[in-house]
Amino acid sequence: MIMIPKPFIDRMRVLHGEEGVAWCATLPELIAKYASRFEISPETPFSNLTYNFVMRVRCNDGKPAVLKCSFMKDELSREVDVLRDYDGRGAVRVLEADVGEGVVLLEGADPGTPLASVEDDSQATAIFCDVFRRLHLPAAPGSPYPSIKQHFAAIERYRERFDDDKRSAPLPESWVENAEECLHYLIATTSENVLLHGDLHHGNILRHGEAWAIIDPKGIVGDIHFDTIQYLLNYEDRGGDRDQVLRNRIAIMADRLVLDPRRIAMWGVARGVLEATWTIEDGGTDWHRGIQITQRFSNCLD
Which terminus of the chain has fewer Cβ atoms in its 10 Å neighbourhood, N or C? Predict the structure, then answer.
């Protein structure tokens, strides 16, 4: 019998109420069912469970794999589609899936050490660039994934919410306008839309044999420059002053990936305001972090 950790059950209660708790109660039976169907041996859950129940398993041939069960079936279905589109090109492979039940069996990254373990920031950024270069291809016509404009829809919703009473709008108006201008320009001047990971940071890049591979893609279609941003928002002061670290990383990315550093910075400006609007939508008051992100990226445009 698989024991579901109480902190994960509590987390599901916070996220999904009693429906989330009831889903947790079904997990032991669900895991047993798919252990038989996928011919795997369950081992142990990961220690850092958040939105999904994820555990180590062993295939019949002895190879490690990962069984992922998700309450949010639509999100898992999109993740499976993205990984299949990446087809092992800098990403772990999908071995089996039943998205209707919210279950997927993934190739296990071995040894699975996250990029966060590489403390030399220049070296880590170079590894990021190697993974990034292998990952992206043009999005297929009629792609089912959300567009980058849809991903930034919270800024439009913020405008609609405070349109009639701008005095009560919490965010500095100049920064919202700046983000809107950047976003409009970037979308209008994107020469090629690619399938983006959408959450490409240190924790979602794992050591896999002699190379590295990504996990947990969100799936967005848009400008390739945007997929640099989440990495730039993590471990911001690793290796020095955070402003200098940001400039150094952007310089490495621009050189190794032949990207436009100004477009990277402009996406960062827009992304900071997006984070602030997400915070407000969630009922939070600490929207200042988002504006600080915007300011830091704006400095890179000087």
Answer: C
